[in-house]
Write a structure and sequence with these properties.
Length: 337
Amino acid sequence: MPNRKPAPKRKTTAKKKSNSKSGKKGKKGFSLARFSMFMVLILAIGYGGLAIWEGQLFPEALENLELPDFTEDDEPAEKADSPAGDKKKAEPTKEVEKKVNYDDFDLYFTKAFDFAWPAYTASQAIIERPYYTIRYNEQHEQAMWVAYPLSADSLRQDKLPRTDDFRKDPRVRTGSAQLADYKGSGYDRGHLAPAADFSYDDFALSQSFYLSNMSPQAPSFNRGIWKKLEDKVRDWAMDNDNIYVVTGPVLNKTFKTIGPNEVSVPEYYYKIILDIQKPDIKAIAFLMKNEKSNASLETFVVTIDRIESLTGLDFFPSMPDDLEDGLESSKMTISWF
């Protein structure tokens, strides 16, 4: 018989089947991983939402963060005597005033002892005196704000001579600035609440010379445009019978310092004036650079909202929201000048 070639062996499919099963198993494992990740994500989102609702997600330290340094968009970097520069930045070129019917408001809140104070907490260094109140800032060794009422009746009284008894404030527990800090510094001991606003009373006048009420000001600023504004505020008090004044430095970063206590030298100062008497309720705010200027006072007018954004302070928090918004978002220059 002729030789026959053996029949070829049939290829086995075991390996193929094995590979097929293996592939199915891998696909199943990948889906489970995705499902697990999805569940973890859902749980994380749920926990985060609950934590935010309960106020526990962010540490308390973040609530007390100081404002960041000025940026190009935020810094009032244009020179004070350049009104065109002021208009190009954050402030609108046209004065805008919200139409608010001030007669609709009950002014009961003005009776509160702390009505003129910016928002504060019990843990902050508040020093209340018979004639003015300050919030002291230990880091910068000066007041963040000074608030007080100013009346025409007080200003009509005989004026007493300046005492110039500058001295350390014994009520600052951590120790206030001292005379040595200003000596030879080239800066004036610039009043925040000016002595001339309290010249009707010996005690009030003397208390205005505590160094907690001082801030390092360039002489040409303190004796020039800043004094001009202080004089104007007294004129407004005479014209409107009673006004409230809140003033202070813009303390939002690290500054050049003077003296052994490292008193900060602010770049800007603000002053806010409020007339809360019907029917002409009005407010005005000023932001001035710590330098000489021959510009008109109107050049420095900004909104109270602008001051709040720079300082992190909340002015007149006891007012109803509509009234506060109307006063703080408008310049109201025409109502004053």
